[in-house]
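call fold target=Hypersensitive response-inducing protein
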Amino acid sequence: MQFLAAASLLAATASAAVIRQSAVYQVTDFKAACVPHSVMCNYSFDVVQTGTGETTPIKCSASTNSNGNLPEITDGTCENSSRTFTVTETNDGSLVLAVTRPVTPNTNLNGQHIIRPEEVVREQTGASIQERYIGPTEFGLTPF
């Protein structure tokens, strides 16, 4: 009986460790918003690759025109880095933030985070309506 309890505890601990280690990138200071009375929307965040000892965050950003809704991004860039990012919209209205870094000519390290519709608000300022992200500013990106 004690062996079974010890084995169960070990399995639960190992399982929890895998969950914690599953993020390939850690994002901090995430912001996404459309500018009031403008057609411009901005995304910005800092990112580090987990498990590598990387401690200095890489700054990533993109700006593009929109009708007030947070737009898709196909060519987001990160300063002094080969990392890039995209933002795509899913059928249920979620947005998917994905960061990619080339590892070899044929492989990339990809991580993603889903931004749920309830993490985005629509705000009216005068005659314009624009969206703004209100979810967590720090989160992990899981491999895909």
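return ok
The domain at 23-143 is CATH 2.40.350.20 (AOC barrel-like). The chain has one domain: 23-143.
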